[in-house]
């Protein structure tokens, strides 16, 4: 299969490398010139579960696709949420009539943007539990195992979704066809909508936050807003199970000492965050359905204030 990885940072590089190694025709696309140049000059370098590997995978800057002769069967989106529309505009020369687009971004509601550039029946959405780390231009660390769930949005496109699932699974990415992907995405968004914003505002890891007197009350209030908005869209979530899942994040023996990705973006790398596509998305959908979301609204505002104070870009 001819596959474009659109957004070839840590996670995109993982998927690109594994799909390439399983025999697919893969190209990497990204907006980070130094990263693209390093891959083209030296190959994509990875520490893959302790093994040093180098794979020669063609890489292109997203602004240079007009001259690229590559009509994709599948595009996998891994950009930051705020970069999605710019990437979709850049990809137009590589999108054929029947190109499938799989969105694996964090957050909620990305299909509302994608459908402006891709036929709705060709849009697929998913939720991945793989991890990856970026060590520098052209180099990533890929440890552990993971999985992903995906589903078609268009009616009658189940077989196409299952074909994508097959290709991903043959690359040992452990893909599963889901009949309730929106619930999976909302469950993950509940974790991101609490741990990411709160740890970023409080300059804490998850264990430190979870050990405070007020953690449970704050998390429950935020999750209640997610669950209520989901229900308005006929998405049923098990709130006690989600709260239990979030509490597992506090464990220092597992991931509790980890700083969430939003903290890494803003506090460590001084980058703008994806808060508008996590808590901010709940605020927008809450307004659409007449649901009050004060906790998500306040946390979204606080993160934007911190972005401005820190001069994030």
UniProtKB/TrEMBL annotation:
InterPro entries cross-referenced by the UniProt entry: 6-PGluconate_DH-like_C_sf (IPR008927), 6PGD_dom2 (IPR013328), ApbA (IPR003710), Ketopantoate_reductase (IPR050838), KPA_reductase (IPR013752), KPR_N (IPR013332), NAD(P)-bd_dom_sf (IPR036291)
Pathway recorded for this protein: Cofactor biosynthesis; (R)-pantothenate biosynthesis; (R)-pantoate from 3-methyl-2-oxobutanoate: step 2/2
Residue stretches making up the Ketopantoate reductase N-terminal domain: 3-152
One Gene Ontology term of the molecular function aspect: NADP binding
Ketopantoate reductase C-terminal domain sequence ranges: 180-307
Keywords tagged on the record: NADP, Oxidoreductase, Pantothenate biosynthesis
Catalytic activity reported: (R)-pantoate + NADP(+) = 2-dehydropantoate + NADPH + H(+)
Top-level taxon: Bacteria
Enzyme Commission number, as recorded: 1.1.1.169
Cellular compartments per GO CC: cytoplasm
Gene3D superfamilies per record: N-(1-d-carboxylethyl)-l-norvaline Dehydrogenase, domain 2, NAD(P)-binding Rossmann-like Domain
An annotated GO BP: pantothenate biosynthetic process
Any Pfam family matching the protein: ApbA_C
Family per similarity comment: Belongs to the ketopantoate reductase family.
Function of the molecule: Catalyzes the NADPH-dependent reduction of ketopantoate into pantoic acid.
Name under which the protein is recorded: 2-dehydropantoate 2-reductase
Origin organism lineage: Bacteria, Bacillati, Bacillota, Bacilli, Lactobacillales
């Amino acid at each position: 299969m001819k596959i474009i990885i659109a957004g070839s940072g840590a996670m995109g590089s993982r998927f690109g490398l594994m799909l390439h190694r399983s025999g697919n025709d893969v190209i990497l696309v990204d907006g980070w010139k130094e990263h693209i140049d390093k891959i083209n000059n030296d190959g994509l370098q990875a520490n893959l579960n302790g093994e040093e590997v180098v794979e020669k995978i063609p890489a292109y800057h997203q602004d240079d696709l007009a001259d690229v002769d590559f009509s994709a069967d599948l595009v996998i989106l891994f950009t930051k949420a705020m970069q999605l529309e710019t990437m979709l505009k850049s990809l137009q020369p590589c999108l054929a009539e029947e190109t499938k687009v799989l969105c694996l971004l964090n957050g909620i509601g990305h299909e509302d943007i994608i459908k402006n550039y891709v036929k709705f029946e060709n849009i697929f959405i998913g939720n991945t539990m793989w991890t990856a780390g970026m060590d520098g231009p052209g180099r990533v660390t890929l440890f552990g195992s993971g999985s992903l769930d995906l589903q078609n949005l268009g009616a009658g496109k189940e077989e196409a979704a299952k074909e994508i699932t097959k290709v991903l699974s043959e690359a040992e990415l452990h893909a599963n066809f889901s009949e309730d992907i929106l619930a999976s995405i909302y469950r993950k968004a509940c974790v991101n909508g609490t741990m990411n914003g709160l740890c970023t505002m409080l300059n804490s890891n998850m264990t430190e936050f979870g050990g405070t007197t007020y953690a449970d009350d704050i998390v429950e209030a935020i999750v209640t807003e997610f669950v209520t908005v989901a229900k308005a869209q006929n998405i049923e979530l098990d709130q006690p199970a989600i709260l239990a899942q979030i509490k597992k994040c506090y464990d220092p023996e597992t991931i509790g000492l980890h700083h969430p990705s939003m903290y890494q973006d803003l506090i460590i790398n001084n980058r703008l965050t994806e808060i508008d596509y996590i808590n901010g998305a709940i605020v927008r959908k809450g307004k659409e359905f007449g649901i009050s979301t004060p906790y998500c609204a306040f946390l979204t505002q606080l993160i934007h204030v911190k972005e401005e104070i820190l001069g994030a870009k």
